[in-house]
Write a structure and sequence with these properties.
30% of the residues lie in helices and 23% in strands. The chain is of the alpha+beta class. Strands 1-2-5-3-4 form a five-stranded mixed sheet, with helices on one face. Helix 3 links the parallel strand 3 and strand 4. It is globular, with a radius of gyration of 15 Å.
Length: 155
C-alpha cells in the first residue's frame, strides 16, 4: 500500500473498484505525463445511491457527499492506468457537473466535496484549478459528476 492509499485508510476510506464505462469510452486515459478521467458518477457497488436534481430531490449536503464519492471513483480510474496513486505529482483540474433545480445556485459548494477530498488525501498535490457547472440532467439521473486531470511524476 502506497502513501496515498494509506492516507485514504487513515481517513476511513478505501479505494473502490473502477466503475465500468456506461458507454463507448474508457474510465481514464494517460497521455505523456497526464491522466484524464472520464466523468465519474457517484456509483457505490455498481449503483447510484441517490438520483434527482440538487435543490429539489437531493440536498446540497447530500450532493457534496456524492461529489466526494465521485472523486474517490476518479482516483480509482487514475490508479487503473498508473498502477500507483503515489505517481500523482499534482491534480491539475477538477470539473464538476451538478444536475440542478432551476433556482439552485450552490454548485461550487457541491463540488467542494470532491476538492476537499483531493486536498485531504493528497495535501498540496491536491490543490487544483476547477469548474463547477450546473446542468439540466446527468446520465442515469445522477445528481453530480466529476472528472479530474492529474500530472504524474517520472516513473
Amino acid at each position: 500500500m502506497g502513501a496515498v492509499e494509506a492516507k485514504l485508510a487513515e481517513l476511513g476510506l478505501t479505494l473502490p473498484e473502477v466503475v465500468p464505462p456506461l458507454a463507448a469510452y474508457q474510465p481514464a486515459v494517460r497521455t505523456g505525463s497526464y491522466v484524464y478521467t472520464s466523468g465519474q458518477l457517484p456509483m457505490v457497488d455498481g449503483k447510484l445511491p441517490v438520483t434527482g436534481k440538487v435543490g429539489a430531490e437531493v440536498t446540497a449536503e447530500e450532493a457534496k457527499d456524492l461529489a466526494r464519492t465521485c472523486a474517490l471513483n476518479a482516483l480509482a480510474a487514475v490508479k487503473s492506468v498508473t498502477g500507483d496513486l503515489d505517481r500523482i505529482a499534482r491534480v491539475v483540474k477538477v470539473v464538476g457537473f451538478v444536475a440542478s433545480a432551476v433556482d439552485f445556485t450552490g454548485q461550487p459548494g457541491v463540488v467542494n466535496g470532491a476538492s476537499e477530498l483531493l486536498g485531504a488525501v493528497l495535501g498540496d498535490k491536491g490543490v487544483h484549478a476547477r469548474s463547477a457547472v450546473g446542468v439540466a440532467v446527468l446520465p442515469l439521473d445522477a445528481p453530480v459528476e466529476v472528472e479530474i486531470q492529474v500530472e504524474l511524476t517520472e516513473a
